[in-house]
Write a structure and sequence with these properties.
Keywords: FAD, Flavoprotein, NAD, Nucleotide-binding. This protein is an alpha/beta fold. The protein contains 13 helices and 23 strands. It folds into 3 domains: about 200 residues, FAD/NAD(P)-binding domain (3-Layer(bba) Sandwich); about 110 residues, FAD/NAD(P)-binding domain (3-Layer(bba) Sandwich); about 110 residues, FAD/NAD-linked reductase, C-terminal dimerisation domain (Enolase-like, domain 1), CATH 3.30.390. The longest helix is centred in the N-terminal third of the chain and has 20 residues. It is globular and about 70 Å long. The structure holds flavin-adenine dinucleotide and nicotinamide-adenine-dinucleotide. The site of flavin-adenine dinucleotide has 36 residues, from strand 2, helix 2, helix 3 and helix 9.
């Protein structure tokens, strides 16, 4: 390629939506650089999935002791928050340098700074101009602006994952993934008052309502105040205390607490990129991309949370990045994105998980199917671990026997859902799942009784 360019490809964002593209394209011999304004790793590795699940791994001990109480296991558990955070940092502290070193081994130039487009093939970074023949955008998402007075007082999920001391009285704005997962962590870590304020009729609107109702019961039993139809209107600070004002059908209420956490949704992190200078179009859901992950500027690709594409989940960003990298190398639109069934898990204890269509979506599409919904707390797998609430719902299509959707709540749900995703992706029928011999006793073996 021409020497007028500093790079053949500049990847903006060193998270899961960017890293794979940089490595793949550099390995093919292109002159590639990657840049991030923060340490390398992105949200999942440093501020999301991975650190969060380390905290969950610790607090699982509390849940385990609770479930096994009176069954021969008598433990008095308590969480040492600073030690738990130190455990988390054994992973997060080492990852940026590992990721950067791996990038350099693949021949990628690693840069640091905040990028802004100044033209269709130029960006400004640290006061200098860089020119690249192609760009790949993977700038992720950020907490949504809620347009309420006092929103600057909200602790973000990143702030929560860095808290030096255990939160005591904590309120979560919103009842989505972040609020539900973090509320469970905070409560099991010993927070005296945990409140989730969700404006909709149910938390976790993307998950099966029957299973979410059971999770809501488990959440309430854990001692979390889960308030639905509660729209947060204002946050005020007096000294170290916060007052949260929220609206309910029966009037305006207030709550006082020591921390208020943003769980009200995330939006594409793109405003600061000055995309107009590069003729890259975007909408409310992110950068407009074709099925080839190409933006409206044919030399620029995008993937992950910043793109108006699949759901904002790590494996989706990895998959989209792979497609973008392949098309960059092909020099044409060769590989179209074709999402396989995408499983999704809320890592509460118990977790709730879903893949494929919801019951409502399947009905809206006019599909003909059998619904199998059963509470499974009486099943051996739940009894064995003292789980008091678990259930599943599957949708099996008439005639074909294909699984249209699977929804699971309870111990093992986070792995069972992956088996359903694999079966659905491979086009296995309910009959074929039933015919599979699974090792027993295991959570996996239950899925043949779920279809
Ligand atoms: C608390 C939390 C928990 C989550 N848990 C899960 C989970 O359990 N499972 C799951 O699948 N998903 C989870 N997610 C979602 C998942 O983390 C994201 O879908 C995924 O990380 C998106 O990857 P990405 O590469 O698109 O963006 P990111 O990983 O966010 O990377 C974007 C990078 O771009 C950089 N950047 C942005 N703008 C610029 C700029 N102008 N110049 C230079 N650099 C820039 C940022 O610093 C960042 O490092 C979670 C998210 C959060 C917030
Ligand atoms: N386990 C996982 O896969 C996982 C975990 C965490 C985050 N994530 C990703 O991060 C994204 C963001 O997570 P999130 O939990 O912030 O968003 P979310 O979209 O899951 O939930 C936001 C919730 O906040 C509510 N809300 C918004 N404004 C409100 C207000 N003023 N008062 C009361 N309720 C309000 C909404 O009704 C909604 O239910 C997720 O959509 C997902 O893509 C994934």
């Amino acid at each position: 390629m021409t020497d007028a360019y500093d790079y053949d490809l500049l990847v903006i964002g060193a998270g899961t939506g960017g890293n794979g593209v940089a490595r793949r394209v550099a390995t093919a011999g292109w002159n590639v650089a990657i840049i991030d304004s923060l340490p390398y790793g992105g949200t999942c590795t440093l501020r999301g999935c991975d650190p969060k699940k380390m905290l969950i791994a610790v607090t699982e001990g509390v849940g385990w002791a609770h479930n096994m109480k009176g069954k021969g296991f008598d433990a008095h558990t308590s969480i040492d928050w600073p030690a738990m955070m130190a455990f988390k940092r054994t992973f997060t502290d080492v990852m940026p340098s590992r990721i950067e070193a791996a990038m350099q081994r693949a021949g990628v130039a690693t840069l640091h700074g905040d990028v802004r487009f100044t033209g269709p093939d130029t960006v400004e970074v640290n006061g200098a101009t860089l020119r690249a023949k192609h760009f790949h955008l993977a700038t992720g998402a950020r907490p949504m602006t809620l347009n309420i007075p006092g929103e600057d007082l909200l602790l973000t999920s990143t702030g929560f994952l860095e808290l030096p001391e255990a939160p005591q009285k904590v309120v979560f704005v919103g009842g989505g993934f972040i609020a539900m997962e973090f509320a469970h962590v905070a409560r099991r870590a010993g927070a005296s008052e945990v409140t989730v304020l969700e404006m909709a009729e149910r938390p976790l609107s993307n998950f099966d309502p029957d299973l979410v109702d059971l999770l809501a019961d488990a959440t309430t039993e854990l001692g979390i105040h889960l308030q639905t139809q509660a729209k947060v209107r204002k946050i005020e600070q007096t000294g170290e205390a916060y007052t949260v004002t929220y609206e309910t059908p029966s009037g305006v209420r207030t709550l006082t607490c020591g921390r208020v956490v943003h769980g009200g949704g995330r939006v594409p992190n793109i405003e600061h990129l000055n995309l107009a200078a590069a003729s890259v179009e975007s909408g409310r859901r992110g950068i407009t991309v074709s099925p080839y992950m190409r933006t409206t500027n044919p030399a620029i690709f995008a993937a992950g949370d910043c793109a108006d594409s699949g759901p904002n989940l790590t494996p989706v960003s990895v998959y989209e990045a792979r497609i973008a990298g392949k098309n960059l190398l092909a020099g044409k639109d060769e590989h179209a994105i074709q999402y396989p069934p995408i499983p999704s898990v809320v890592f509460t204890l118990p977790p709730v998980a879903a893949v494929g269509l919801s019951e409502a979506e399947a009905r809206e599409r006019g599909l003909q199917f059998d619904v199998k919904f059963e509470k499974t707390s009486g099943w051996y797998s739940s009894l064995r671990v003292g789980a008091r609430r678990s259930a599943f719902k599957t949708l099996v299509e008439h005639g074909t026997g294909l699984i249209l959707g699977a929804h699971v709540m309870g111990p093992g749900a986070e792995e069972q859902i992956n088996l359903f995703a694999m079966a659905m992706g491979a086009g296995l029928t309910a009959k074929q799942i039933k015919a599979t011999i699974f090792a027993y006793p295991s959570f996996a073996s239950d899925i043949s009784s779920m279809v």
